[in-house]
Amino acid sequence: MPAGPLSILGASGSGPGNFTIGTDGRGRGVLNISSNASGPLVTYHFVFYFVSPWLGFLQEQPASDLSRRGRTGEFLFQTVTAPIALPPINLTFEGGTTADTAASLHSAGVFQVNGAANPVSFTVTADTSKSGVSSQVPAATGTGTINIGDQTTGRGTVTATTVGAIAGSTGAVIYVEDPSELLLMGTDATLQEPQIISLDE
Q: Domain spanning 91-200 has what CATH number?
């Protein structure tokens, strides 16, 4: 059974981990990640499946703090090489979030990116909704900037001029998966359950 160490890179540093993958050809594996970024050391456990060498899906199992978060997600092969920056051309990205919990705010929208390679300016138009709420926030628009601060990992920050323009947030972290695909997560302190936003050109 293939196995190995793993390091997760993020704004708060790296998180050590390990994984194993079964040899039955089903692409199923187990992933364990330890982190103290939010306080006491917690080991998170996931089951994952590879769809291809470039795409996989994962589902959380109970963590060492006995919580039952039950998060799901996907992981992608990062196809860009350092230094990573958004191209200095006009691009249009569209996409949205996926439902995790009833308290989550969800969004779908269009990002028009313009300008120099780093930072770039953008215009966004997005719709948001929340489970159990009869009315949605229609067509919130805003402008802002995207700055890829870490051109080794492709991590950057997004700042909008309009409240709620990015899945209910005015700010986000961003990762460049490749020049045609971006991943964002809202960073406003009022967002108790921020969503992952997948944008495709």
A: 2.40.128
